[in-house]
Amino acid sequence: MSGVQDSLEIKFRLIDGSDIGPKSFPVAASVASLKESILSQWPKEKVNGPRTVKDLKLISGGKILENNKTVGECRSPLCDVPGGVTTMHVVVTQPPQEKELRVKSDQKQHKCMCVIL
């Protein structure tokens, strides 16, 4: 029974409803290491995937998980089912698109100034 307490089965639900996992993680694993695992297992055919760990946010029990927390610290008694699988939601935050940056810079270039003497 101690093996069940030392690890947790986690699957990661992507925004399109597909899953990565489930996979067993030790309760001492950090949220950052979970994100690294997601990044390495991210389906290559999916467009707009994360480029780095910083592009990922994990949500469990309605809370955004912090990188420095461990899996054990993030467990919610409401979500834990003995011998079950915990589902964490994955959100990918994308950096601003080049087009948006270009539009903003264009707006700066078209400023007019009038001076009345």
Main sheet: which strands, in order across?
2-1-5-3-4
Structural class: alpha+beta
**How far apart lie the N and C ends?**
86 Å
- As for the CATH topology, it is Ubiquitin-like (UB roll)
- Uncertain spans: none
InterPro entries: MUB (IPR017000), Ubiquitin-like_domsf (IPR029071), UBL3-like (IPR040015), UBL3-like_ubiquitin_dom (IPR039540)
GO cellular component, one term: plasma membrane
Main location: membrane
Domain UBL3-like ubiquitin: 6-115
The gist of it:
It is found in: Cell membrane. By secondary structure, this protein is α+β, with helices and mostly antiparallel strands.
What topology does this entry show?
Elements: H1 2-6, E1 7-13, E2 19-26, H2 31-41, E3 56-60, E4 63-64, H3 71-74, E5 85-92, H4 98-109
Parallel strand pairs: 1-5
Antiparallel strand pairs: 1-2, 3-4, 3-5
Task: Give structural notes.
By secondary structure, the chain is an alpha+beta fold. It has one domain: Ubiquitin-like (UB roll). The chain contains four helices and five strands. It has a five-stranded mixed beta sheet with strand order 2-1-5-3-4. It is elongated. The N and C termini lie far apart (86 Å).
Summary keywords:
single chain; 117 residues; alpha+beta; Ubiquitin-like (UB roll); 5-stranded mixed β-sheet; 4 helices; 5 strands; UBL3-like; lipoprotein
